[in-house]
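Weekly sync notes, structure subgroup
Attendees: PM, AL, DS (notes)

Item 1: joint prediction request from the bench team. They want all two components modeled as one assembly rather than separately. Inputs as received:
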Amino acid sequence: DQQVKQNSPSLSVQEGRISILNCDYTNSMFDYFLWYKKYPAEGPTFLISISSIKDKNEDGRFTVFLNKSAKHLSLHIVPSQPGDSAVYFCAASEGGNEKLTFGTGTRLTIIP
Amino acid sequence: GAGVSQTPSNKVTEKGKYVELRCDPISGHTALYWYRQSLGQGPEFLIYFQGTGAADDSGLPNDRFFAVRPEGSVSTLKIQRTERGDSAVYLCASSAIGGQAGYRYTFGSGTRLTVV
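Output from the run, pasted for the record:
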């Protein structure tokens, strides 16, 4: 049972445009959400997070939106840069539990 | 060290053999996590240590898998009687404190285990 789903395995975006990565979840007990970025042969690195008490969090070019009623979150990257090309994982946690549940990832390719 | 170090980076073993995977967390990080990433999947939780003790081992798939952290720093993931389905990248992560900041793991580069 996949509790965190990233339905788009890949996405290509022109440099300078907006990249939007989507994530859906089924567990209504999840209350903290994170995005991780992964380059080949490296471990995932933390990008941005959001608590369920908020609906938006922004950090530079990265903004995460949370829609609790739809159990949906999205990551917006604007403007997209070639160095953003990587696999992006959505992750979630419930009730202060240290364990994270990850989605299957979306491979983002920024086209120069 | 500056980051989380995992050794070996690659391990090929024969079915039925025993393997040990090592993780050196960031110095001072009290929390340590093991995840497994199979091809085409996201990382899957295995076990979480707070200090020397396993605070949550609910992700270990069966009793062939065991992990230790005897001095609250380096951790070893041990797999007995390896099976081809154990082939995956095993990721270790550490974090400084619990709570929401604790979710911002620093991952190592992983050990790619191949069972032939």
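Discussion: Chain A touches chain B at residues 4, 6, 32, 34, 41-46, 49, 51, 89, 91, 93, 96-105 (CB under 8 Å).
Action: AL to compare against the crosslinking data before next sync.
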